[in-house]
Design brief:
InterPro entries: AMP-binding_CS, AMP-dep_synth/lig_dom, ANL_N_sf. By secondary structure, this protein is α/β, with parallel strands linked by helices. It has 21 helices and 26 strands. It has 3 domains: 217 residues, 3-Layer(aba) Sandwich (Rossmann fold); 186 residues, ANL, N-terminal domain (Rossmann fold); 133 residues, 2-Layer Sandwich (GMP Synthetase, Chain A, domain 3), CATH 3.30.300. The chain is globular.
């Protein structure tokens, strides 16, 4: 068993809470830029003082609505400025925030409401209200007898949840809010976040103010503090209902960094251009998409050879940073920097110095590519149960392919069967109202992650797979699907891939196609513009492309682990179909059931 501890460099006092920074920042730097809001196509600044005033107004309204110390308040919304206002206001009222993904179905909302038992619900849009009306009404009939709901989107610019709560709390004093804040303890619950439910019913992860404070301070104590500082800015576009985006937002706010929000993913590149972030946070799929789109466009424009050579040079340049780059490589890198890399950096707003990636493995080649073009991606590792990042690569302390070292004060160990187990101030203390799941996951303070990995002598963690996802072939070979799937998704035409083969004679895969990349590929290969993935499933040119991707993937594994056969599916996996979580993770059990016939066809003689 191997173990590594990152020394503690701070202490979270019991008198502290995650909302304290709202008021200390408003007092110490009232004119500092806390947030930037996109209003009528232009970005406007929100100062620390005005943000604090807005938080207090909404907190007064929540108190007037009946929120008491320790009560849960559910928040269902996409990523936007109001999300942060309401989140901090819930804490300022003494409440506990229960985030709900804005894409959640009525059934998912019903389960969270029944389990968390919130006293109040804030929804974002008319559609959310309509889609959840029945389950929301039923919940409040059972609990409080009245529907305590507010809608963020008002009928006019001056209406909506923020304005309504401010009006409702007109007779509640600021002193009442500050008394609620003073009564908070770091050991009090701050948020109840439900897991994505990839392997079963979602569980409520209860994180305390101490957990969130340790996460924020841990991130800011790393060398990332060079960018997490006053004067820098970041654009948040991942769901704030997910612990990763929420934790980095809190750390950025605590550091004095200006935070912007957008939920307009189709126009993300254009938004980067107007906002010009200094750093961004994302998941691997977004980085894969940016790379694949650029590659596909280059090939469609007849510049494929240049792009491929530039990509190879970027990877080689990054790999050489751990040793030394020769004269020829330096010259090639300088040439491609002007021809290719500068354009890719411009797509991220022109001044993005780094990116942070989490939620899933990034893949070493993609990590080297982005570091080679001048936008290093610092990959991290964590779960909802660890308040987001438990470990992260940082400036000057990066090993591409690893997920970095533990944040200060935290300990990792690798058990005899290669399971990663974690302990420290960012680790939760249990699931909400679920003692059985808590007992299964925690062992004397050690959180059993279910992830498999390794740990080097310097404390860098490398993820190799998940225990529950391990495939055991009929021949007894253990195969972790994650690495194979990551490499397949690196191909521009492949959107998603899921590896199968449990108790089967060999490893197979289901593959879905990326519709955006497919459009350009059809034009370049003379295929009908209206041809669908189903139409092209037996097209020899397309099959040759996927065969090449599979062959390249198989080069990284043994013969027993290699993909022998695959099937191209007619459509993509989606959250709406229940095959993916809101954080873009595959629901393997659902997919295996939905595509049972296709899987069996792989193994048919």
């Amino acid at each position: 068993m191997r173990e590594f501890t990152s020394p503690a460099v701070f202490v979270v006092e019991n008198s502290e809470s995650a909302v304290d920074t709202v008021f200390t920042r408003a007092s110490n730097a009232p004119n500092s830029i806390a947030f930037r809001r996109l209003v009528n196509g232009s970005w406007s600044d929100v100062t620390a003082a005005s943000f604090a005033a807005e938080v207090v107004e909404v907190a007064r309204g929540l108190i007037a609505a009946g929120v008491r110390q320790g009560d849960r308040v559910a928040l269902m919304s996409s990523t936007r400025y109001e999300w942060s206002v309401i989140d901090y206001a819930i804490w300022a009222s003494g409440g506990v925030t229960v985030p709900v993904y804005e894409t959640s179905s009525a059934g998912q909302v019903e389960w969270i409401l029944s389990d968390a038992d919130p006293v109040l619900l804030v929804l974002e849009t008319d559609k959310h209200v309509a889609d959840t009306a029945e389950v929301v009404a039923a919940h409040f009939r059972r609990s409080t007898g009245s529907a305590q709901t507010f809608r963020i989107d008002g009928d006019t610019p001056d209406s909506g949840a923020i304005a309504e709560l401010a009006a409702l709390g007109a007779d509640t004093s600021d002193e009442e809010v500050h008394a609620r804040v003073a009564a908070l303890r770091s050991s009090d619950p701050a948020t109840l976040i439900y897991t994505s439910g990839t392997t079963g019913r979602p569980k409520g992860v209860q994180l305390t103010h101490a957990n969130l404070l340790a996460e924020s301070r841990g991130i800011r104590e790393t060398s990332l503090k060079a960018l997490l500082r006053p004067g820098s800015r970041t654009l948040m576009f991942l769901p704030l209902a997910h612990v990763l985006a929420r934790a980095v937002t809190i750390a950025a706010f605590d550091a004095g960094t200006a935070v912007g929000h957008t939920n307009d993913i189709p126009n993300l590149v254009a938004t980067f251009g107007t906002f010009a972030p200094d750093f961004i946070l994302s998941v691997p799929r977004v980085f894969e998409k940016v790379y694949n789109t650029a590659k596909q466009k280059a090939h469609s424009d007849g510049k494929g050879k240049i792009f491929d050579a530039a990509a190879d040079t970027a990877v080689a340049w990054s790999e050489a940073q751990d040793g030394s780059a020769g004269v020829v490589l330096r010259i090639k890198h300088a040439v491609f920097d002007k021809l290719v890399y500068a354009k890719l950096r411009a797509a991220l707003g022109g001044q993005c110095q780094l990116a942070i990636s989490g939620g899933a493995p990034l893949g070493a080649r993609l990590g080297h590519f982005y570091r080679g073009i001048g936008v290093p991606i610092y990959e991290g590792y964590g779960l909802t149960e660890t308040s987001a990042a438990f470990a992260v690569n940082t400036i000057g302390n990066q090993r591409v392919g690893s997920v970095g070292r533990p944040l200060p004060g935290n300990t990792v160990r690798i058990t005899h069967d290669d399971e990663i187990q974690l302990r420290g101030p960012v680790v939760f203390s249990g699931y909400w109202r679920n003692d059985e799941a808590t007992a299964e996951s925690l062992d004397d303070g050690w959180f059993r992650t279910g992830d498999l990995g390794s740990l080097d002598e310097d404390g860098y963690i490398t993820i190799t797979g998940r225990k529950k996802e391990l495939i055991v072939t009929a021949g007894g070979k253990n195969v972790s699907p994650a690495g194979l799937e990551d490499q397949l998704r690196a191909h521009a035409l492949i959107s998603q891939a899921i590896v199968v083969g449990d108790q089967k004679p060999f490893i197979g895969a289901l593959v879905t196609l990326d519709e955006d990349a497919l459009s350009g590929w059809k034009a370049a290969h003379g295929k009908p513009a209206d041809a669908t993935a189903a139409d092209l499933a037996k097209d020899t040119d397309l099959i040759a492309e996927i065969d090449a991707a599979v062959a390249e993937t198989n080069m990284s594994v043994s013969h027993a682990e290699a993909i022998k056969k695959y099937r191209i599916l007619p459509g993509d996996f989606t959250e709406e179909s229940g095959e993916m979580t809101p954080t873009m993770k595959l629901k393997r059990n659902v997919i295996a059931k939905s595509y049972a016939n296709e899987i069996e066809a792989i193994y048919a003689k």
